[in-house]
Write a structure and sequence with these properties.
Blueprint lengths: L2 H7 L11 H9 L1 H9 L2 H19 L6 H23 L10 E2 L14 E8 L6 E6 L5 E8 L2 E7 L10 E7 L7 E3 L6 E7 L10 E5 L15 H30 L5 E2 L14 E2 L2 E5 L4 E7 L4 E9 L14 E3 L11 E6 L8 E3 L5 E11 L6 E6 L3 H4 L9 H18 L12
Helix pairs in contact: 1-6, 2-6, 3-6, 4-5, 4-6, 5-6
Amino acid sequence: MSSMDRWRQHDRTVISLGYDAARRERAAANAPAYVAALRDGSAWAVFSQALRDLGPALEASGFAENETDLAEGYRYLLGLVTMRLNSILYAAGPEVPAFVRGMDDIVKVGLDNPDGINSYLAEIRDDRTYRLFGTVGRERYVEFVQFGASGTLANNFLDQFSSTPDGRFEIWLSREKRPGNHLELPPGAQGLLVRQVQYDWENEPLSEIRIEQPGVDALPECLRTPDPAQVAEELTSLGATLRDELAFWFDYIRAFSGTGENTIGGDQPLAVSGASAVRAAPKGTFRLGPDEALVLELEPPEGLFWSVAIGDVWFRSIDPSRRQSSLNGHTARVDKDGLCRIVVAHEDPGIANWLDTAGHQRGIVTFRYVRTASRPGVRSRVVRTAELSEVLPPDTAQVTAAERAETIASRTRGFAARYASPFTSRWGHA
């Protein structure tokens, strides 16, 4: 079975919610057994054994070629565990939902998009009525993704809905059509993901977005006295979820790596939603010697958003706040012939469109296209760093050391402002 086939067989819910209706029902239906497992310690033993199994699985992946790769891999693994624990500990539940941020600049997975927060998740049910509300910001786009056990069910964008002159908005989510802004809740909907993506990190403040089920006066699940059977089910299921999630991402990386090193594949299925009418993310891997550079060339697409970012072998972004490890349609320079050329290299060549490997000889390259008129292919070639001036056009945009330093300082300020936003919307002010 190929890596792509194995990836497609994985349960996509492993990268969605920390707790869902099926697991609650399982806990309730088998409450005596789960309570007994909690009391005799076997639930914790199952979880502990699963944690012990994760390290060998990481090492057996073959992704680590040296001790630094392995160290980064274990940090990646700790991040996965942290993300899963947070998704359970902070879960508000579908009755009193709240958005919880899954990732930041430390805890990250799936080559997190450096241009925004892509991991605000709220648990919902398809038989309830919810109200999304808040204040419209100035980021490039806000996307609402409804998903269930089968993957993505619907994509919508905030710019499709009306707001008041002072920027306030209200959107109703329900099965039945309601007056005003309305999102239909499709059958099987279990979660709502919000992506908030910026082009100009310092000058595009984020929207404030909250969710509620009107008329429900109850505590969020995370603040209630925990149910013993549910906690036992969490412990026994969490280890399997982590094992599945690790295998999911390893198979996904192997699937798109099949095009070969230093090449970018064509339109590929997305990790969670598969083929999508609104987005694409062609990917590839790089391997560069100390004096080598990878030159990427494309015709930048017209439309809402495009970007390129690089990450380590574990599919995590290389620190975007203090390294220029990503570019987007606002920051990338386009040459006079209409093409955008991007240079991946270990040392700064003084070229505006440089992507900093931070010393990684191997890693991953991801392009992203969202609501674009085209999904251009990317041409690539490896050259000697000393030969860059010979293979790039004479009008290639250059930068001074001072200009590069200001670019990095701006990225750092923008990143800090972005992650000053609340970890969970229960702490927000919208």
